[in-house]
Amino acid sequence: MASSPLDSRVPAVLLRIDRNPFHHGTLGAVRSLGRAGVDVHVVADSAGSPVRSSRYVRQLHPPPPPGAAPADIAAVLLRVAARIQRPAVLIPMDDAGALAVSRLREELAPAYLLPQQPGAVPERVADKAELAGLCAAAGVPHPDTVVPDSAAQAASAALRLGLPVVAKWSRPWLLPTDSGLRSTLVLRSAHEARELYLRTEEAGSPLLLQAFLPAGPDRDWFFHGYADRSGTLRAGGPGRKLSAWPRRAGLTAVGEWTDNPQVRTLAERLTRNLGYRGILDLDFRRCGTTGDYHLLDFNPRPGAQFRLFADAGGLDVVRAQHLDLTHRPLPPRAPQPGRSFVVENYAPLAALRRAPRGRELAWYAPDDPVPGRALWALWGAHVGRRLRARLPGIPPASPAASTPVTDPSDPSDDEKARSC
User: Fold this and answer.
1) In this structure, are residues 219 and 418 in contact, taking their beta carbons and an 8 Å threshold?
2) 11-23 confidence digits (pLDDT tens)
3) pLDDT tens digits for 40-72?
4) What's the CATH fold of domain 12-125+216-350?
5) Residue 48 in contact with residue 405, Cβ under 8 Å?
6) Does 329 sit behind a cis peptide bond, omega within 30 degrees of 0 on the bond before it?
7) Where is the ATP-grasp domain (predicted)?
8) How many angstroms separate the first and last alpha carbons of the chain?
């Protein structure tokens, strides 16, 4: 660890409010910073999660509950800061955490090192209705979007955009956990659009409808980066989604670092126009008719597959943020195009194939093997519970053996339904 360019005197705190024990991005951040000699504190619900068994976790802290008020989130983070007793780099790992930290900047700044974001930029880009206007102002292609103000207008907008149509809740982090509502759906009739609009009050944010673009080869792309104090994009790069879970409309199961000047240009243009600072994860889909890359989502935090873009010097977006906020120089980028990233529980066969240009697995690592082993025991139990719930005549598992989870096999906030 002596050769690490990171300042090991400054710890890192990872915040995750969403309950998802299978969030491999959190483990990736733990390992990346821990390998560089940084003490890593995790504020997340780690019960039943492989993350808790990583050798690189310095300490686990209980998170604020889902839907917690900003004051409660601030109280949790300030308690953690008091235990650490020195300023730390704070990295939210989900949208709810990123937006809370943005709103609480003044309260948290004495205890945490944070990017200097202008205004409420993280909340603006995470709001799926507002993102359309931000893209238009920056000249970045975005799906045709309608925000209906009545059930009748929702039905007519669905017909005008062309069925099927994508429906999204503008602020998915506000969805009640027990509502059964999903952040993104593909609707196939005007009646479905009308009925969904009637649940707007329950959802807590406006419904928006977007024109749909069918899936196809070489169409799903993403960009991960870190905008430093000057606004320059550092670390990360463009990548191509080779496999998704669920198929065609889910999170990245297999990704590849692939150079794409068009995607990079769009990311730089939007970041510059917004004055954005910090880590970002952008999702694009290429339109098969025009060839344009349409921005679908702007996530103001690390994406779960950010470790795909660990370059030849070990630099990734979380290390870039730590270096930048501790006023240490960022080394020149050493891209590794062709490198791949595989989430083993979603693409087990891909994890066994040869990877001549390098590959990182989401869960298993030779220097930190226990989380990989823990995953398969937990994943097997999880899949077993799902099968018991779906197949008649099979008794459910006892409550003591169950761990409440956000099921990553169901479309949820992690789902990136593709639209254009």
Assistant:
1) yes
2) 999 999 988 889 9
3) 999 999 888 999 999 999 999 999 988 899 999
4) D-amino Acid Aminotransferase; Chain A, domain 1 (3.30.470)
5) yes
6) no
7) 132-326
8) 46
